[in-house]
Amino acid sequence: MAPAPIFEQPNVAEPFNTHRDGLALEATSDDIDQVNVLKAAMRVKQGTATQEEKDIYEKSQFDAEKDKTQFRQYEDACDRVKNFYREQHEKQTVAYNLKARNNFRFKTRAEMTIWEAIEKLNTLIDESDPDTSLSQIEHLLQSAEAIRRDGKPRWMQVVGLIHDLGKLLFFFDAQGQWDVVGDTFPVGCAFDEKIIYPGTFKNNPDSNDPIYSTKYGIYTPGCGIDNVMLSWGHDEYLYHLCKDQSNLPEEALAMIRYHSFYPWHKEEAYFWMMNEKDVKMLAAVRAFNPYDLYSKSDEVPKVEELRPYYEELLDEAFFDHENGIRGRDRKLRW
Ligand SMILES: O[C@H]1[C@H](O)[C@@H](O)[C@H](O)[C@@H](O)[C@H]1O
Ligand SMILES: [Fe+2]
Ligand SMILES: [Fe+2]
Q: Distance (Å, rounded) from C-alpha 148 to C-alpha 166?
């Protein structure tokens, strides 16, 4: 029997490809290997691994491809980046996060289509990013184009196109860039040494809190990353918007929500939080990451030439079933 479609197919010429690559509905053997490695890593770090899982994990460490070192060189980064993280690491507290989430829920800041959002975002220069000299629109299109070039599914191309649109927060009610951009990390438990510039957390009031400063803090091991409060910013904001207003599948939502959570998806910190679902979501987030990072050096995309292609993808991803409005025309609530 054919697998069920990921989401209802809107009435457009070519439906979204339901094959999820690396995350297949009908998983390939590579997908299964990848998930097994991540599952083994989780169990090793949680101290519950069998001997077989320990062996799988060790082998994977040995096989791991060398990092592409020209990106994310924070030690050599300019003062702009260092100052950004010092401020962010001092100000992202549990109290602030509760307030930001509350504020988000009860407000619509603007009504805009995706393309209007892309154009509006373009004036932002991201203070946390040591790598890109491109504008935001160019970065979004570059990521999407790299995903498309590799023949990945249409919904993943959409993720490439929109994944940083949450940075629009900066133009609404952000307090600066520190609550919009940069890598994310959990609040409510101890800050891990694997976060970049870990020394800068010492002036965060939560570092002296008797509960928040403990390893597990307000969480329990295996609670699942969906139940953890990550520092507030563009990932979390856009995730909620897409969860409520798009037809994107679960893996797409995870890519959006966790793409900046490098301490987890790259450094393998906080594995104690993971549950079974997170193993699959981690595979998805890792499948997306190279397109976010390593496409930053590709050639500059021609925006107006590419627009018609992506508008068709948006028609599906944001098709408004209730009112029969094409995704490209839909005024989303931001
Ligand atoms: O500086 C970058 C940038 O802000 C990205 O949009 C974010 O996803 C990364 O995690 C961060 O390191
Ligand atoms: Fe981002
Ligand atoms: Fe990005």
A: 22
Q: Determine whether the shortest distance from the Cβ of 181 to ligand 1 is under 6 A.
A: yes
Atom of ligand 1 nearest to the CA of 81: 1
3-state secondary structure of 92: coil
With 0-12 CB in 10 A as exposed, 13-18 as middle and 19+ as buried, what is 148? Answer: buried
Nearest ligand (C-alpha, residue 262)? 1
User: Residues 111-158: pLDDT tens digits?
Assistant: 999 999 999 999 899 999 988 778 899 999 999 999 999 999 999 999
Distance in angstroms (rounded) separating the CA atoms of residues 152 and 284: 12
Among protein residues, the one whose CA lies closest to atom 11 of ligand 1: 182
- Nearest ligand to residue 125 Cα: 1
Specify the amino acid at residue 175: Q
Residue 18 has what pLDDT? 44
Paired strand residues for 332: 112
Q: Which of 140-154, 191-205, 268-282, 291-305 has the lowest mean pLDDT?
A: 291-305
- CA dist 262 → 135, 230, 267, 290, 293 (Å): 22, 12, 6, 12, 11
Q: Is 21 in the pocket of ligand 1 (CB under 6 A)?
A: no
Find out whether the beta carbon of 157 lies less than 6 Å from any atom of ligand 1.
no
Compute the distance from residue 163 Cα to the ligand 2 centre, in Å: 6
Q: Which distant-in-sequence residues (6+ apart) come within 8 Å of 281 by Cβ?
A: 225, 250, 251, 254, 258
pLDDT of residue 17: 44
Whose structure tokens read 């998806």?
A: 265
With b for 16 or more beta-carbon neighbours within 10 A and e for fewer, the 215-226 pattern comes to eebbbeeebebe
CB atoms closer than 10 angstroms to residue 82: 16
Ligand whose nearest atom lies closest to the CA of 74: 1
Q: How far is the CA of 63 from the centre of ligand 2 (A)?
A: 28
* Per-residue model confidence as pLDDT tens digits over 180-211: 999 999 999 999 999 999 999 999 999 999 99
Which of 6-15, 132-141, 257-266 has the least mean pLDDT? Answer: 6-15
